[in-house]
Automatic annotation (TrEMBL):
Native source organism of the sequence: Heterocephalus glaber
Family of the protein in this entry: Belongs to the heat shock protein 70 family.
Keywords, alphabetical: ATP-binding, Nucleotide-binding, Stress response
Nucleotide-binding listed as a keyword: yes
Alphabetical list of Pfam families matching this protein: HSP70
The protein, known as: Heat shock cognate 71 kDa protein
PROSITE patterns found in the cross-reference section: HSP70_3
Length: 233
């Protein structure tokens, strides 16, 4: 085992500056070193007693060469023609990823200019082209890169409470909202949040949310339930 000299996920560094929030966050989890080279990120390893640095593009360019060496050793002959198949993104595929982004404000019935903060969620949002499309869609608004996109879903959960009998949430009346924060960084879908609703005889609604892994609890009390009817929540 040689973790400090084992490079992985270096694709996240391609196109990103060293001071990028995503890079700084990822560095905390990588066993290998990432150093600043005039604003660009380079990975640093030790080889035969020497310290060497490589741009992430250089690392990935070494992969086909190494694959050729392994293939020749296995086949016992020289390989002169080879093909590496990778997933190909074209303009239409990139453009298609914006469809949910465009529909979200429309479904919520507000203009995209009213959005205060844009947080990147999911590893694919690390792609510079994707970030450019998002920024252009939001009329040049700066993207929030302070949170690692791969971990964003685990930073906190927001609960919104509505009253009404309509099938669609947007057609009901909002009562209040609160956040359950401090959830440990875990893969998407792993956190388990137990939410409890309790209405007393005076029509006061108490809502609590507990993270099952840490027992960390957040709660809120809503006193205007009586005016709208507790049975309609």
């Amino acid at each position: 085992m040689n973790p400090t000299n084992t490079i992985f996920d270096a694709k996240h560094l391609i196109g990103c500056r060293f001071d990028d929030g995503v890079v700084q966050s990822d560095m905390k989890h990588w066993p290998f070193m990432v150093v600043n080279n005039t604003g660009r990120s380079k990975v640093q390893v030790k080889y035969k007693g020497e310290t060497k640095t490589f741009y992430p593009e250089d690392v990935y360019s070494m992969v086909p060469t190494k694959m050729k060496e392994i293939s020749e050793a296995y086949l016992g002959k020289t390989v002169t023609n080879s093909m590496v198949i990778v997933a190909e993104f074209n303009a239409n595929l990139f453009r298609g990823t914006l469809d949910p982004v465009e529909k979200a404000p429309q479904n919520a019935k507000f203009d995209k200019s009213q959005i205060y903060c844009i947080i990147l969620v999911g590893g694919s949002t690390c792609i510079p082209k994707m970030q450019k499309l998002l920024q252009d869609f939001f009329n040049g608004k700066e993207l929030n890169k302070s949170i690692n996109p791969d971990e964003a879903v685990a930073y906190g959960v927001a609960f919104q409470i509505y009253e009404g009998e309509h099938a669609m949430t947007k057609d009901n009346s909002p009562l209040d909202k609160f956040e359950c924060t401090g959830i440990p960084l875990t893969p998407h879908g792993v956190p388990q949040i137990e939410v409890t609703f309790d209405i007393d005889s005076n029509g006061i609604l108490s809502v609590s949310a507990v993270d099952k892994s840490t027992e960390k609890e957040s709660n809120i009390t809503i006193t205007n339930v009586k005016a709208i009817g507790a049975r309609r929540i």
